[in-house]
Amino acid sequence: MSGYAIGVDYGTNSVRALVVDTATGEEIASHVYDYPSGEAGILLDIKDPNLARQNPADYVVGFVVSVKEAVAAAASHDGFSAEQVVGVGVDTTGSTPLPVDASGTPLAMLDEFRDNPAAHAWLWKDHTSHAVAEEITRLATERGEPYLAKCGGAYSSEWYWSKITHCVRTAPEVAKAAASWVELADFVPAYVTGNLDPKTMPRGICAAGHKAMYNEEWGGLPSAEFLEALEPGLSRFRYETKAVPSDHVAGGLTEEIAGKVGLPAGIKVAVGAFDAHMGAVGAGAKAGVLVKIMGTSTCDCLPAPLSKKLPDVPGLCGVVPESIMPGQYGLEAGQSAVGDIFNWFVKNLSPAVYGNDGAAHAKLTVDAARLAPGESGLISLDWNNGNRTILVDPLLTGLLVGQTLHTTAAEIYRALVEATAFGALTIIKRFEEYGVAVDEVVNCGGIAEKNPMVMQIYADVCNRPMKISRSAQTCALGAAIFGAVAAGEHDSVESAQQAMTGFKDTVYEPIPENVAVYERLYTIYRTLHDAFGTKEWSGSLHHVMKDLISLRTEARG
């Protein structure tokens, strides 16, 4: 094999194209295109902080520019030629649905809807539909529908049907003009292959299963009866297409697109999926290997064999067959804020002596790393942006217990890091509680790459070695892997991973004496977690501060 694949990674603010050697995984060129519309690519509304939309034209131009420039850069690499590119894969944010007309053209690209925010793409973090999400959860529960069992027991304002329903109710002119709604992960492959007909375009199981309540157990999407009970007329947006995993071919690159990007026409394009799921593949995910994509928030992805029936796991973002890789269940969990919590502290509470932004993080990390587990006498709950897993409650908030007149900024910073690690352990324990093995943990993203203190704390708290993915661009790499598989360059995702992925040499091993202290701290964390996060908890918090003081005294000797 001497071919190349291109992974196109649509993030929140930009799109990246990555050219990868399918035999070795060498990343020979890339290019990033920043979305020009709105603020950092996001269309906002000063009157409604929950609104976050994007201009579909940015996606179209972004594909052309990023791929064209990446291919041009790759041309300087010895042995590369555009004719050797065999496949393209696409990953995107999600749920990011957009309304289209009968030809598959986004309504926002038509003159009459260009200035209508509801006609643009509803970005994953648009929360205008929060009331609808609660209504969907309530209706499904009252009717005894099975739909919520595969998505953790509660529907989200960030997901497909919440957004479509809200549009129907608040922007009827857009809903009336829309022939269908298409996830960004489905739109891009459809656009570049010329298969834009909403009735026939390939739909990916990743987006459909995790965000649209699609499951073959009940015949695909929720029933027309359920959707009509939610909102009259909503069922016309229920597509009948069978959703498929990303090793399937969406089509071949059209002559028009191929000419614009400098590639031969007909190159195979894989069915799209979400960034975190393809990132997990790019990091080496397989059964028993949990991948943590760590950034402002964290997404956890874990495959599990389809041959072993899984129970419904409460609190997860989804249990979807083949959403991560073929032949495996795709389990998704996550934390609503990780890096965002550290950034919040630096921006709002860090003393001036530490400086701003990156410099403050670096200095706080140095001081925090000098502290032993338990030495701060602090414990925190990592809910500054609500709780995604396992409580699925956006109305929870952060908490810090144990501060005194002598508490330092570095101690608080470390307590916040530890809180996110405790949240990570809570997710692992939920997997194991329902019979899903977590044998290995692989981390990727900026935090994993740049902060050894955080990784060591995670290793100690979770009592597991923490590996780091070799690639810093695992989402784009995962997309390239699916492009290679769809093109037949590899006969399976597993064989492509073996050739194209790997780990860094550094492995963070748990330190036994730290593990022992963190086991005691985690007991306190779970007490607070259950006390503030569940209705069912009953007990006393009287011992919490005393226990923290005892641990602090022991740590300080």
From TrEMBL:
Catalytic activity: L-ribulose + ATP = L-ribulose 5-phosphate + ADP + H(+)
Metabolic or biological pathway, per its Swiss-Prot or TrEMBL entry: Carbohydrate degradation; L-arabinose degradation via L-ribulose; D-xylulose 5-phosphate from L-arabinose (bacterial route): step 2/3
Presence of keyword Kinase: yes
Span of domain Carbohydrate kinase FGGY C-terminal: 292-487
Record-level GO cellular component terms: cytoplasm
EC number: 2.7.1.16
Any GO MF annotation of the entry: D-ribulokinase activity
Enzyme's top EC category: transferase
Any Pfam family hit: FGGY_C
Xref: CDD domains: ASKHA_NBD_FGGY_L-RBK
Gene Ontology process terms (BP): L-arabinose catabolic process to D-xylulose 5-phosphate
Tagged with keyword Transmembrane helix: no
Keywords of this entry: Arabinose catabolism, ATP-binding, Carbohydrate metabolism, Kinase, Nucleotide-binding, Transferase
Domain Carbohydrate kinase FGGY N-terminal: 4-282
Family, per entry: Belongs to the ribulokinase family.
NCBIfam families: L-ribulokinase (TIGR01234), PRK04123.1 (NF003154)
Identification of the protein by name: Ribulokinase
Gene giving rise to this polypeptide: araB
